Predict the structure of ATPase family protein.
Amino acid sequence: MNIEAAKTEIKRTLALYLEKDEMGNYLLPRVKQRPLFLVGPPGVGKTAIMEQVAAEEGVALVSYTITHHTRQSAVGLPFIKEREYDGKMYSTTEYTMSEIIASIYESIEQTGIREGILFLDEINCVSETLAPMMLQFLQEKKFGNFSVPKGWIIVTAGNPAGYNKSVREFDTVTLDRIRQITIEAEYSVWKNYAIKQGVHPAIMSFLEIKKENFYHMETTVEGKRIVTPRGWEDFSVLLRGYERKGFEITNEVALEFIKDKRIAVDFVNFLELYRKYENKYRIKDILENGDIGAELPGYEGAGFDEKISVVSMMLSGLNNYFIKTYREEEYIKRLFNVLKKAKEEEGYRTVCELYDNERKEYEKLTLGRALDKVRDKIYVKTISKLAELIKLGEGIDEEVFAGEMSAFFAREKKTVLETTEKAEKALSNAVNFMERYFTPADDSEELVVASGSEMVYFISELETNYYSMNFIREHSSVDIKKYGKLLKTSATRDKLMSEIRDEQ
């Protein structure tokens, strides 16, 4: 199962386990709520999808790496308590609340979110002293005498034995109490996630050309060679930071993340070419102004790597426009709802109350790790703009403030429309560029369908990207449906991409 399918299964499990009857009681008995066990190689995104599920479903997330715990911290510390039995006093041993269980209650108290996911990583690497406790935990949802609160589902994860020397294979009894989901690395699935996370376009271009370098595990006489999706994502963060500072990416720096010398060196060489293509083709100018100017130098005879890099740069630039438009439109919807309620109720006082509510909700969602990057920025902008509006309303009467609200909203709405128009223009310019260089001069339908693999890649990426499709559906006048025959199946795209590689 790929990571996206696993994410879907976790969401379905969450919906099923948290389903309630008309009295508000959970339909599925806790004893039947089997914990999930995600097993897969390191770095494929097991932890990342838990954060995504929590953010998208609006539940809290408490996560622990179980190998960091001793029996005492997981189960609780013993203490002596006096009890009376048959008229006699006895000293008995009881236990404090498990640190893990206590963290769930702290999350509920801090965020106000009463339902969530308890995620325990490396569960198949527990110490010998803790191993006997895990069966009770998986079956009864308890550590010691304390249960996981109702409304919290348990998801665990671990690596196969071949990737971790500390792995202890689950026995039959344990396996019979969990739902095991085996996850494999798959580039096409990770790519959708990477686009949303803003992974550096040079990395995306490199992996599009050389998918075999996306995930690689090998043990040699020189040691382990490890390349994982997590490594590429973390390397992307450093790469963007180095670019801001003007620092050089060397082979040694790449090897810190991409622990295979051949792949790391290959990427650094590609990065140098990628930057050369950026300067040569002026993608930013094309998207902003549609000004291609003279024929692009040497493009007709460019190789596969160069052409795909240019198209990837085009797609990356467009995606920035689409995400910004999406954020701005979600922000203006939230602002509209606030101002509408303010006009219906107590004006300035209502705005102040709703500002406080937004800020508190944002803090709770942040503490519960229930926000993705895009939603986080929407909240931040909404809160910031409401603070501006509150400042405008200080010391003026309600009638004047009502006018200030209307003027404020009009200004913000205008900015959003301008952002949308820029995105529409960029998309139109990009399509014009692609048609100019990747379709025949005769624009008959038959010949358009015969367009090159670069156009197939361009259109297919637009049609599989959430933000681009949202924009095209809501705003765009650009007709990309005429290229639909190019995308009959994903196999068509892969076949054409393979053909153009073979031509080089």
Confidence is low (pLDDT under 50) at residues 440-451.
